[in-house]
Design goal:
The chain has 344 residues and is an all-alpha fold. The chain contains 19 helices and two strands.
Length: 344
């Protein structure tokens, strides 16, 4: 497949005014929103936009999520298994997936409490993927979130089982802890999460990532990996939040598309940071992807175009929020910029 970035006039690609032929050559997450109206400017939210502080919002939501995760995985027997689960699950993190789940629920008018179980479940699944991703049989990474990776701290066997336990617990947690939400919506959320983790979701991205290591892959393969390995769980977190919040099918779809753009954005930025930051700044091994021969966005299209792509994805994510209540949309709008501007 021809490279979907090279050969597109810069003014057409990055302004959103590409021709139909050019749009077909754009990465899917960019193409999906390229013809939609741009999001309402933040000025339309008036004083609310000026007063909204994402850092405080994220800190508050993170505290609530951390407390819920702590309650969800208490110390039990066998102690080593639970120690391993808690070691990775409660490690300091950005909590982007659970925050997106909570914000998506509130976006459609639902209460935070309705989405907390799916928020916790999305983080459990994400942490499982990190534990397994670090194993010697996959990425063989010694660091995660600034600490020894789980298998370094507890051994490979325990790390493998801790990941298995977390993903199983995630489904149980949604099924048994979601209250005040119709059963059919809880079932839809469980189905959404299962799809995100299965052979058409994260696992598909992971196996493609393994098979493509050291290979010269194009943007189509690279995008498939990231939309499944990283983006699919972000999509599921957002969709589940909107589902249990009582959102319409159209609202759930728009939130899903927003998260799809943010998911790819997250990985594009991750690739950029891998070549521009140190291990100390990242809290994990810097330059490892490039050194291992993996294809990354900066390697494939150059650092400048990767940075341009990140900005395009932010705009497209914002476009999906057009039409929602401006104040309720603020957290998700600002969160897209937070992902783009992060430093680790």
């Amino acid at each position: 497949m021809a490279c979907p970035v090279h050969g597109i006039p810069r003014t057409a690609m990055w302004s959103g005014r590409a021709t139909a032929a050019h749009r077909r050559r754009l990465p899917l997450a960019v193409r999906s929103a390229s013809t939609r109206p741009q999001a309402e400017p933040e000025e339309t939210t008036g004083a609310a936009a000026a007063q909204f502080d994402l850092k405080s919002y994220m800190a508050d939501k993170t505290l609530r999520v951390d407390a819920a995760l702590d309650r969800a995985v208490p110390l039990c027997h066998p102690a080593r298994l639970y120690d391993s689960m808690r070691y990775s699950l409660l490690a300091p993190g950005k909590r982007v997936r659970p925050v997106i789940a909570l914000a998506s629920c509130e976006l459609v008018g639902g209460p935070e409490g309705a989405a907390m179980p799916v928020a916790c479940a999305s983080e459990m699944m994400h942490v499982m993927s990190l534990i397994h991703d670090d194993l010697p049989c996959i990425d063989n990474d010694d660091l995660r979130r600034g600490r020894p990776s789980n298998h370094r701290a507890f051994g490979e066997g325990t790390a493998l089982l801790a990941g298995d336990a977390l993903v199983s617990l995630a489904f149980e947690h949604v099924a048994t802890r979601t209250t005040g939400v119709p059963a059919e919506l809880v079932l839809s959320a469980v189905s959404e999460l299962a799809s995100a983790m299965g052979p058409k979701g994260l696992v598909a991205g992971q196996i493609m990532d393994i098979e493509s290591e050291g290979q010269a892959v194009g943007l189509d393969v690279l995008e498939f990996i990231h939309l499944h390995k990283t983006g699919r769980l972000l999509e599921a977190a957002a969709a589940c939040g909107a589902i249990v919040g009582g959102g319409s099918d159209a609202e759930v779809d728009r939130v899903r598309r927003y998260a799809r753009c943010v998911g790819l954005l997250f990985q594009v930025v991750d690739d950029i940071l891998d070549v521009t930051k140190t291990s100390e700044e990242l809290g994990k091994t810097a330059g490892k992807d490039v050194a291992s021969g993996k294809t990354t966005y900066p390697k494939l299209i150059g650092l400048e175009k990767a940075q341009q792509l990140a900005r395009t994805l932010v705009r497209n994510a914002e476009a999906e929020l057009h039409g929602f209540d401006c104040v309720r949309a603020l957290p998700l709008r600002r969160l897209a910029h937070y992902v783009a501007d992060r430093h680790n």
